[in-house]
Structure formats: C-alpha cells, structure tokens
C-alpha cells in the first residue's frame, strides 16, 4: 500500500522537532553504479553461454569434449584458444561499451519499454558488425560463420527477454506499491500540475505524488487546508522526512541562491533533486537531461542507493524463505493443529504493521494469546515493563499455554516468511512496528522505516532483553547504516542460536 491516509495522520502526530542532517550524504556527481555493474556482468555471462551453445550445436560436440578441444586448440582447426578468447572478449566488451553509451544501464523507470528493446537490439547488431569486421581483417574463414550468427541471435534474444522479464517484475512491484519513489513538487503553477498529472497517469514510472511545496510569488496560491499542499520551503525537509520523500522536483523558476540552498540540504538528507532544464542556468552545467516520461529533467543530486546489493538481498530472501517454508511445512501444520486444540480462536494472528516508507501491511504470526487479547491490553497498561513506545509484560496473563512455548522458541514468527515471499518483509531488518508505536515516534525515529522490516534483526539477537526504546532504535539505525550481505548472514546465524536457546519472549 502506498502512503495511506492513516499514515498521513500518523505523520501529523509527530511533534515538530528541529531538522537534522542524518542520512546518507551525497555528492551531486556520484551515481549508484552497483546495478550497472551487475547488468554488465550478466551481459558478459549471456555472451559466454550463447557462444558455448552455438559452438556445441554447430560442431555437434558435447560440452565436455568441446571444452577439451578448446583448451588444446583443436576445437577449430588452426585457431588457438587465445585467438578465440580474444574474439569473445572483443564481442563482450563491444556489447557492454555500446550498451553503456546508449544508456541501457540507466534506471529502467526513466525510459519506455519499446525504446529500451530497440536500443538493446541496436547494441547487439552493432557489436556483431564489429566482430564480423574483425573476422574479415584476420581472414578467419575457418571459423564457421553460423557460430557467429547463432551466437548473435541468441545474445539478442536473451538480452531482450531478460530486460522484458525484469521490467514486468518491476511494474508488478510498482502496482503493489513496492519500490516506488515518493515525490514532492516545488511550485504550484501549470508546470507543477502537469508533472503531477504525468506521474499519476504513467504508473510504470514508479513515482508516487506526495504533495506540492508552496513557493510564494510563483504559481497559483493554494489553500493551506488543501490536501495537495504538503509544505513550504521552510518546512520542506521536515515533511520530506515524515513522508519518506525520495525525490524533489523544482518546476517553478526562483533565485539561484534558493535552489542552491535546497540542493545543499538535499545532499545532507540524502534526497534526490531534479529541476526543469530551462529554468536554472548555471546550476546544471555538464549534467545530462533525463526524461521522466515526456518531461525533461536535470538531476542536480542523486543519492547513493546500493541497488545491486538490494537485488541480491531480495534474491536471498526469496531463496532462503522458500527453503525454510518447504523444510518446516510439517512443523507449521503441527503447530496449527495444536493451536486449534489448545484454545478457542483463529490459528493465525493478523496484525496491521508499518513497513518501508510507512506502507501498511498485514503481518502474519501464529496466535499465542487468547482471542480477546487486544481488548484487554488497556487494563494491563500499568504492568508494562518497557519504557516509552514499546509494550511488554514478562508473565502476560493473555498468553495461552501453548503460546508460552511458541514465544519462547520464536515459533510464532515462522509464518512471517510468507510476508517475506510477498515482498512485505525481509529475512533481516528492523522489527515491523505497530501503528500505535509509530504515533509516538520522534522525527529521527522514522529512520527505522527507510528499509524493509525483517523477521529477525540486530535488536532481536543483541538487545531483545533491553527495555530501552532508545537502545532499540539505536541498534536498528546501526544496522541500516552498516548494512551488508555479510551482516545479514551473521545475524541469521546468531538468530539460530537465539531460537534454540529459548530466549524468545
């Protein structure tokens, strides 16, 4: 779910605190290159696989025999493995260089699908012409031309198909509110409303309009009670923090110093900034023009996003969760039957939680309390053992007999792997909070909601017994700022030890 009305109400309850400069500092010329490098590696692997398949098919040999012939220089008579490797390397390098030149490694959301496919075919055909020219200059008539043609055809089909599948998956996530970027538009004039209409109607761009930023003297003055007016220049980054804004678009002309000031604060807060090209002479020299649909924009700042790492994390989440669900399915069934026999009520406890960027999702757990546990919570508030936002009672009278053991060994959280498969949670990440907890957050606490919540996390394995909410937030922020795949693996390993030691709550 995108930023909802409920979440807007939650954001309004956050007490105004001074703006802080927490967040990844960015350099305006630095771009996230992780995803581009990943695509380059995949392109190289595609060329290698296509060449092997074409050679095996044309020479009627097996993979093992073909590999031996290649190594000993007898695969193609008169051609050593060095020459063949050089030709393969040239073709691969040409595809990568031309694809980069054609901006095929840029963010997929910024271009159209058909344009991307045309450029992909163009890159393959141009690289094929360069390879053919090289073969002509080397007078390599002994290398079967059908191997070259089949390799080129396979590479073209594979690259086009891979980009098609990736886009379809991307668009599917956008339609579910996953991976979209929240946008504030500075200005209230015709250009601002046209851009808003553009973003709302072209959903595959992956943008969610949050609101306008009032700029006095430019555009139509909007009523402060209007639902579309989100902020002023003075409160711009307070609202950007509350609404999890990823990008700010300038559509109204204003003084150079104003835009420069916003640019400096955008860098400090890790928020991307774009402007309409004709409006800001001098600020965007040597910056490329990028089209958002049909709108030309100039990116003045682009924060660092580890896209390749996040993609690997998502793949690990899906693979790990699938294996876990497959292996423990008999245990899940046994627990479900035991819950039904132990006490009246449903098997699962479904709870609305706040996920990444304030999206609401339904978290799935095994029921460990009596059916009317929520209605009895107010009566037990005086027994709360945690400070501030959290609520926890050691010997909670609402917990069932079976629920005590499910909580002790964290078995009640196993159904959350289905949330992971749906993309609502990750295996490792901050604990997903309740809406009632988020209402009490300070502005800096919202940092926890910048990432996807997890089944386990640093707090679960290191600070679970600590009643301090500040410690709870500190551990989550530490995880976010120091995240890596290796850190996730270490937390998973430590979680296994926590589960078997029975230190859950």
- What integer value in Å does the Rg equal? 28 Å
Query: What's the helical proportion of residues?
Result: 40-55%
Number of strands: 11
Individual helix count: 16
Shape: flat
Give the rounded overall mean pLDDT.
Answer: 77
Order of helices and strands: HHHHHHEHEEHEHEEEHEEHHEHEHHH
Beta content: 5-15%
Can you characterise this structure?
The chain has 505 residues and is an alpha/beta fold. It folds into 3 domains: 34-174, no CATH class; 180-305, Rossmann fold (3-Layer(aba) Sandwich), CATH 3.40.50.720; 308-501, no CATH class. Helices cover 48% and strands 11% of the residues. It is built from 16 helices and 11 strands. It has helices at residues 5-13, 34-59, 63-71, 81-101, 113-138, 145-175, 190-201, 236-242, 256-269, 307-342, 401-408, 416-421, 435-438, 458-462, 469-481, 485-501; strands at 181-186, 207-214, 229-232, 247-250, 272-275, 290-292, 295-301, 348-354, 360-366, 426-428, 454-456. The strands form 3 sheets. Strands 3-2-1-4-5-7-6 form a 7-stranded mixed β-sheet, with helices on both faces. Strand 10 (426-428), helix 13 and strand 11 (454-456) form a beta-alpha-beta unit. Helix 4 (81-101) runs antiparallel to helix 5 (113-138). The longest helix is centred in the middle third of the chain and has 36 residues, at 307-342. The protein starts with a helix and ends with a helix. The model is unreliable at 1-32 (pLDDT under 50).
């Amino acid at each position: 779910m995108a930023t909802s009305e409920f979440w807007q109400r939650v954001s309004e309850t956050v007490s105004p605190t001074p703006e802080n400069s927490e967040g990844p500092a960015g350099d305006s010329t630095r771009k996230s290159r992780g995803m581009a490098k990943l695509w380059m590696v995949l392109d190289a692997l595609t060329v290698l696989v296509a060449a092997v398949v074409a050679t095996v098919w044309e020479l009627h040999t097996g993979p093992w025999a073909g590999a031996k012939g290649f190594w000993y220089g007898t695969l193609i008579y008169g051609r050593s493995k060095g020459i063949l490797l050089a030709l393969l390397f040239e073709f691969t390098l040409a595809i990568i260089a031309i694809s980069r030149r054609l901006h095929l490694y840029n963010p997929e959301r910024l271009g159209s699908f058909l344009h991307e496919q045309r450029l992909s075919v163009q890159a393959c055909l141009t690289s094929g012409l360069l390879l053919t020219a090289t073969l002509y200059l080397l007078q390599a008539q002994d290398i079967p031309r059908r191997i070259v043609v089949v390799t080129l055809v396979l590479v073209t089909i594979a690259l086009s198909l891979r980009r098609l599948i990736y886009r379809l998956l991307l668009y599917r996530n956008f339609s579910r509110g996953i991976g979209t970027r929240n946008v504030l538009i500075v200005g209230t004039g015709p250009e601002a409303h046209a851009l808003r209409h553009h973003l709302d109607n072209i959903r595959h761009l992956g943008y969610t309009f949050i609101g306008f930023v009032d700029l006095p003297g430019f555009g139509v003055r909007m009523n402060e009670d209007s639902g579309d007016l989100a902020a002023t220049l003075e409160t711009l980054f307070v609202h950007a923090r509350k609404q999890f804004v990823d990008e700010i678009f300038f559509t109204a002309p204003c003084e150079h110093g104003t835009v420069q000031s916003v640019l400096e604060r955008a860098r400090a807060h890790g928020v991307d900034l774009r402007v309409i090209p004709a409006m800001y002479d001098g600020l965007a020299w040597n910056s490329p023009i990028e089209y958002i649909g049909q709108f030309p924009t100039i990116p003045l700042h682009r924060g660092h996003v580890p896209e390749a790492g996040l993609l690997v994390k998502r793949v690990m989440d899906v693979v790990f969760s699938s294996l876990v669900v497959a292996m423990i399915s008999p245990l899940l069934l046994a627990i479900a039957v035991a819950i039904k026999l132990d006490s009246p009520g449903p098997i699962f406890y479904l709870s609305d939680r706040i996920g990444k960027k304030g999206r609401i999702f339904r978290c799935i757990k095994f029921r460990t309390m009596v059916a009317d546990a929520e209605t009895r919570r107010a009566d037990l508030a005086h027994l709360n053992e945690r400070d501030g936002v959290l609520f926890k009672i050691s010997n909670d009278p609402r917990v069932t007999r079976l629920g005590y053991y499910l909580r002790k060994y964290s078995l009640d959280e196993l159904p959350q792997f289905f949330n992971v498969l749906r993309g609502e949670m990750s295996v490792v990440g901050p604990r997903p909070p309740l809406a009632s907890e988020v209402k009490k957050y300070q502005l800096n606490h919202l940092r926890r909601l910048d990432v996807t919540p997890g089944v386990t996390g640093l707090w679960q394995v290191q600070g679970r017994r600590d009643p301090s909410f500040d410690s709870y937030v500190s551990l989550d922020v530490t995880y976010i700022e120091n995240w890596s795949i290796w850190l996730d693996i270490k937390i998973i390993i430590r979680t296994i030890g926590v589960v078997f030691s029975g230190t859950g709550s």
